[in-house]
Write a structure and sequence with these properties.
17 helices; single chain; Zinc Finger, Delta Prime, domain 3; five-stranded parallel sheet; 5 strands; Rossmann fold; 375 residues; alpha/beta; 3 domains
Length: 375
């Protein structure tokens, strides 16, 4: 695990990172950014392993040196992790180190995962995950220690956009005056939400969407998916291996989101206000992170149904169930209402992030859909 050879596709990105190390041009801070599911974290981990390796080859870490042996279990003493958590005072879990066992378990199971997957692994899907202020003190303490292996000290920050403001400012000081031979690898899906001062002190490393052929090959070789199915799933995944995995595992949450989306559209069209109130209460019972991801899903479905009207199937990325629904629903999404519906979805997402009462947010959105669908 965590070799360059394990990264799906991204041949150009791999080559650039290896060349960086071989030419001695290792930045003290890099910001890996790009769409979700493109392999930013596996790529950053493979790069970190390569930096730590005592005998790297021209294409990967050696796999046999003492450093690589420690990497096999994600227990390298000079590699540290920062990631969003949900505090659990009863279980005395308040910093990332308290969740390291779960973090390692998820990474070794499959390195292509989403924030929702991580929340489920923590058994904390009803909370909003944050990298808390105390974490910056922890990482400062760790980096003040001498490197055990005598090489780089590496800090991997997954989703730095989730940094608490206090934590972000303290991390900024570390980036401004980094300890010797220290490397920070920030892995972000929303780099524009990171403090601009942190962005300015990192070298941005863009990770593009994975080629359809690479996703299809990985589905065939790693998961035994038949060729025709692998190609269809790879197209629907739109460059995200996480979406491809969700498709082959019949992800329960995506199915729930699809049913909730379909239910709302039918209720709004039929003006069933009482049913819409129950719908909003069902959404209100979910955790904030799931609510935000549902609204992301709605925005995707809105785009897909609008594009469906163009009759260009190569531009659509939907499951069979979603496409079957689109054959009837897409005509209701048109140039007169698509911008208005998208605006309401973005507004709802902003209110959820600001901890506005979710019952009010979702019921208000549902009522507005009655008018917008008739536009």
């Amino acid at each position: 695990m965590f070799y360059f050879k394990d990264v799906i596709g991204q041949q150009s990105a791999r080559a650039r990172l290896i060349q960086e190390v071989q030419e001695g041009r290792v930045p003290h801070a890099q910001l890996f950014c790009g769409p979700a599911g493109t392999g930013k974290l596996p790529l950053a981990l493979a790069y970190a392993r390569y930096l730590c390796c005592a005998h790297p080859t021209g294409s990967d870490a050696c796999g046999t040196c003492p450093s690589c042996v420690k990497w096999n279990k994600l227990m390298h003493p000079d590699v540290h992790f920062m990631f969003p958590i949900v505090r659990n005072a009863k279980a005395k879990k308040e910093v990332c180190d308290d969740y390291l066992a779960a973090w390692r378990r998820l990474l070794t199971t499959h390195a292509y995962f989403s924030l929702d997957d991580w929340l489920n692994e923590m058994d904390a899907d009803n909370g909003q995950a944050i990298i808390y202020a105390r974490e910056s003190d922890e990482i400062t303490r760790k980096l003040s220690l001498k490197a055990v292996e005598g090489g780089y000290k590496i800090t991997v920050v997954w989703l730095p956009e989730k940094l608490h403001e206090v934590c972000a400012n303290k991390l900024l000081k570390l980036l401004e005056e980094p300890p010797a031979r220290t490397v920070f690898l920030l892995v972000s899906e929303a780099p524009d939400q990171i403090l601009t001062t942190i962005q300015s002190r990192t070298q941005r490393f863009g990770v593009p969407r994975i080629a359809e052929a690479d996703i299809a090959e990985a589905l065939r070789t790693r998961y035994g998916v038949q060729q025709a199915d692998s190609e269809a799933i790879a197209h629907m995944a739109n460059g995200s291996f996480t979406q491809a995995l969700q498709a082959i595992s019949l992800n329960e949450e995506n199915q729930l989101f699809f049913e909730l989306f379909v239910g709302l559209m039918r209720q709004a069209y039929a003006r069933k206000v009482r049913d819409m109130k129950q719908w909003s209460e069902q959404l209100a019972g979910m955790g904030r992170e799931r609510q935000k991801h549902f609204l992301d899903y709605c925005q995707r479905m809105l785009r897909e149904n609008f594009i469906y009207n163009l009759h260009c199937p190569e531009m659509n990325y939907m499951t069979r169930a979603e496409e079957n629904f689109a054959t009837r629903f897409a005509p209701f999404i048109n140039v007169r209402n698509v911008a208005g519906i998208m605006h309401e979805l973005e507004e709802a997402q902003r209110h959820i992030a600001q901890n506005v009462n979710p019952r009010m947010v979702f019921f208000d959105f549902a009522l507005k859909m009655i008018v917008l669908l008739k536009a």
